[in-house]
From TrEMBL:
GO terms for molecular function: dolichyl-phosphate beta-glucosyltransferase activity. One of its GO terms (biological process) is protein N-linked glycosylation. The lineage of its organism: Eukaryota, Metazoa, Ecdysozoa, Arthropoda, Hexapoda. It comes from Diatraea saccharalis. It is found in: Endoplasmic reticulum membrane. This is Dolichyl-phosphate beta-glucosyltransferase.
Amino acid sequence: MMEMLYLFCSIIFQALLVGIFFLMMISVVIYLTTNPYAAIERFQDEEFYKVPQTKAKIKFPSIDDPQSINLSIIVPAYNEEERLPAMLDESIQFLENRSRLYPTYKYEIIIVSDGSKDKTVNVAESYVEKFGTEKIRCLELIKNRGKGGAVQLGVQSSRGSLILFADADGASKFEDLKKLEGALEEMVKYDIFKEPSEIENCCAIAIGSRAHLEKESLAKRSIFRNILMFGFHFLVWLFTVKGIKDTQCGFKLFTRSSARICFKNLHVNRWAFDVELLYIAQKLNIPISEIPVRWTEIDGSKVTPVLSWIQMGWDLGLIWLKYTIGAWKIKSDKTN
C-alpha cells in the first residue's frame, strides 16, 4: 500500500515538474516573440467618415486632440441591422431632450460597424443623414476586429470630454447614463455640463453593473451556463481584476484621459477586452466606480455560450501570463 502511494506521489510530482518546465518554456517563447506595447491596426479608409449629402470623406479626429464636445458614445455593431435602430432611437431621444435643457451641451454617437455583412452600415448612415455628422458618425471597419477592437477604434476617433461605450442591443437603459455621470462627478469633483475641459484631464471610470440582478438571472439560466459564468468570474478574480462584481456589462463611462490611456494599452480585441481595460485601470490606480443599472435580455446575442466562454477563459490566462512575465507592458501618461 505504501509503495502504491509512493508511486502515485512520484508520478504527480514528476508531472508537476514537467508542467512547470513547459510553462517556463512557453513563457520564454511568448516573451521573446511578443511586442510589449499594444499596436492599433487601422486601414487608411477607416480614418474617414462619410457625409451623406455631399459624399465627401472627412478624417476623424484623434483621442489625442483636446475635447470639443461633452459626450461621445461608441456603439460597436456587428450585423446589428435589426437591434440597432431601437438602441439609437432611445439614446438620441434622451440626448436631444438633454440638449434642449442645456443648449451648450453637445454629443456624438459613433457607430462602429465591425466588418458587418448585413445592412448595419445602411442603418447607421440613415441616422447620419437624418441628424447630421456633428451628432452621428459611422466608422466602417474593413475587416472584423472583435468587439474590443471596434470599441478601441471608435474611442480613437472620438471628441468627447466623457466617452461612453454602449452595446448595440440596447440591453442597458440609456437613461442610467445619469447614474454613471453622477458617480464620475463624485470622483473628479467637476460639473459635466459646465466644466468639460477640466473633466477631460481627470482620470476616473464609472461602469454599469448587473450584479444586483444575479439571483434572477441564475433562475433563468441553465445549470451548465451558470457553471460557466461562475467559472469565468472566479478566473477574473484569480488572475486579473479584484473588487469588481460585473466586468462584462456593455455600459462603461470614461473621462477622456482615462479612455486614452486604457485603450491605447489594450491588447485583447475579443470578448475579454473589458477585463483587460479594468486590469490596466487598476494597475494605474485609476478610480473605478461600479454602479447598478437596469438591464434587459435582448434576443440576438452574438455570444455563443460554450465557444465564447472558452475564448474568454483563454484570453484571461493570456492576460495574466503576459503581464506577469512582462511580455505585455503598460504605457502611462496619467497626470491626475
